[in-house]
Amino acid sequence: MKHLLSTEDLSSDQAIALLDLADEMALVNEREVKKLPTLRGKTVVNLFFEDSTRTRVSFELAAKRLSADLINFSAKGSSVSKGESLKDTALTLAAGGVDAFVIRHSASGAPFNLAHNGWTNVPVVNAGDGTHEHPTQALLDAMTMRQRLHGMANTRGKNLDGVRVAIVGDILHSRVARSNLHLLKTLGADVTLVAPPTLMPRTEEFAASHSFDFDEVLAQPLDVVMMLRVQSERMNAAFFSNEREYSRNWGLTSERFEKLSSETVIMHPGPMNRGLEICSEAADSPQSAIVQQVANGISVRMAVLYSLISGEHND
Which domains does the chain have, with CATH numbers? Predict the structure, then answer.
């Protein structure tokens, strides 16, 4: 594995090896000194063309905890604002000698172009491209599911065979949903996508169960309910009548939360729109793994950077 561009590129063995390594990195993050010397002398570039808090900070912490040197690049205030292309930006930064690029971009396929167009010969990590994919988010979600469903001390080598997952909300614009669907199926989970008809992609685009009725899906046994953010910034038309209607039909309201099994894990990739996609009772409950997802993001990104840059676990 030279790059991490899509979860579709990961075999089950590769995904489980990364998750096992992330569990080891989590132990480092629990120590008083949260530092490893493994990437000392290596340079990682965070190449962010889109606003981000969780992902950017998470990759920054991951690189620093592996003792790598870090360059945080933001399109705002850079030559990109003067019209510089992704190619020329990458060539400029690569000329200084870097060992990995982490890229977030509004254009689907930008990380693939960076990795395969001869602009760089170092590993490229997709930190989210348009409405295409967000592979490290899917990995941290799978890590969280393994911990919650198998127990923190019993995850090594485990897949997600038979785990029943509902992914609910703005599927159409969600790179998180795409990456999760690919990875969860690879790991053996049974995934159902739930959305309004206007926010559900063409069924041939996703080989998964589909439903427009959230209550019908919730009436079935579920191990995980993953709520998605309504991505209004990517919508150029009215995809639903109003927020009240959306919440009533497709939100995890307090009424729906009360009907859930106490064993069902609640997840959200963030940032949350409380009262729209998810109620505070659900988000702040013991069933919620949302804070755990954020913590696991650092461990997963440490594992990915270590694997790609050091060359270990790449077979």
Answer: 7-134+294-310 (3.40.50.1370), 135-288 (3.40.50.1370)
Percent of the chain with pLDDT over 70: 92
2, 34, 38, 54: the active-site residue: 54
Alpha-carbon gap, residue 180 to 140, rounded angstroms: 10
Question: Is 65 assigned a catalytic role?
Answer: no
Q: Which one of 104, 132, 148, 301 is the catalytic residue?
A: 104
Clarify whether 55 is annotated catalytic: yes
* 104 tagged catalytic: yes
Place of tokens 């993001």: 297
Q: Could you tell me the end-to-end alpha-carbon distance of the chain, in angstroms, rounded to an integer? A: 7
Decide if 45 contacts 69 (C-beta within 8 A): no
141-187 per-position pLDDT tens digit: 999 999 999 888 889 989 999 999 999 999 988 999 999 999 999 99
Active-site residue among 31, 53, 76, 82?
82
pLDDT in tens, 187-204: 999 999 999 998 988 766
- Please, what sign has the CA dihedral across residues 59, 65, 68, 73? positive
Q: Known catalytic residue: 82?
A: yes
**Rounded CA separation 187/12 (Å):** 6
Sorted by sequence, the CB contacts under 8 Å of residue 70 that are 6+ apart come out as 43, 44, 45, 46, 60, 63, 64
Instruction: For the chain, count helices (H), then strands (E).
Output: 11, 9
Beta bridge partners of 266: 225, 288
CB of 280 within 8 A of CB of 38?
A: no
Catalytic entry in 7, 43, 55, 264: 55
